[in-house]
Amino acid sequence: MNYITAHISKIQSIDTINVVSFISHDQSLKMMSLELDASLQVGTQLRLGTKSSNVSLAKAFSGELSIDNQLPCTISGFEVGELLVVVKLNFFDTMIESIITKDSFVRMKLQKGDAVIALIKSSELSIVEVL
């Protein structure tokens, strides 16, 4: 599980659907949710979480994507298996892992020190803990 410390910058709610915006290291993140603790408010510090398998990578990316969470990262290492690769990313002072196929790793020619964008769909981000 990946953890990112952030604070709430905006809450939008209609009926039972919520879109919560966060700031972490001057980067914007968003989360979609059907349930939201009523005690959460703008400014609340918290820890967000997402599975490593929910983190996709883009290298030398240009263009538009519908994925709101686009975090600039540097590859700090990787563990290569027969089918999958765990790519270790540095997002400012936070370590994030992405699990991708070995085929994607080879095709993208990923190397330690490469700048990449970690992509996390807003439906794959959750609040783990209020700080």
Protein architecture, described:
The strands form two sheets. The protein has a five-stranded antiparallel β-sheet, with no helix packed on it. The chain has a five-stranded antiparallel β-sheet with strand order 5-9-6-7-8. The protein is mainly β. The mean pLDDT is 96. The longest helix has 7 residues, at 102-108. It has one helix and ten strands; from the N terminus they run ββββββββαββ.
Order of helices and strands: EEEEEEEEHEE
Distance between the first and last residues' Cα: 18 Å
The strand line-up of the biggest sheet is 3-2-1-4-10
Query: How much of the sequence is in beta strands?
Result: over 45%
Short characterization:
By secondary structure, the chain is mainly beta.
Topology:
Layout: E1 2-14, E2 17-24, E3 27-33, E4 45-50, E5 56-58, E6 69-80, E7 84-91, E8 94-101, H1 102-108, E9 115-120, E10 126-130
Antiparallel strand pairs: 1-2, 1-4, 2-3, 4-10, 5-9, 6-7, 6-9, 7-8
